[in-house]
Amino acid sequence: RVRIPLPVSNILWEHCIRLANRTLVEGYANVKKCSNEGRALMQLDFQQFLMKLEKLTDIRPIPDKEFVETYIKAYYLTENDMERWIKEHREYSTKQLTNLVNVCLGSHINKKARQKLLAAIDDLDRPKR
């Protein structure tokens, strides 16, 4: 057995938790369809994950917790709120943002509105001239 000093252990936990949270968002970004029940299950799964983490480690606050929560909550946004949200949340990848538009608003908005939101995502991705 090799004892790991507490500060090193905490750093390892922090990195593992951050990676797990980023992986969760990436997984949610791969969803092809999502019902209201599916969105609720995302939140429930994440809450269960947090409860288990809190028993395993003393790291507080949980790294990137807000990153996951914010992404899940974005599934509930309306078309008007989504454009503002996209511009305010540049921490998400183009793929993650595009999925939000296509999955959560896909059936609720017309093609023109979807194209407008996808164009807003593309504008964020372009380098400034």
From TrEMBL:
This is VPS50 protein. GO terms for cellular component: cytosol; EARP complex. Residues 3-122 form the Syndetin C-terminal domain. GO terms for biological process: endocytic recycling; retrograde transport, endosome to Golgi. Pfam families: Syndetin_C (PF10474). InterPro entries: Syndetin_C, VPS50. One of its GO terms (molecular function) is SNARE binding.
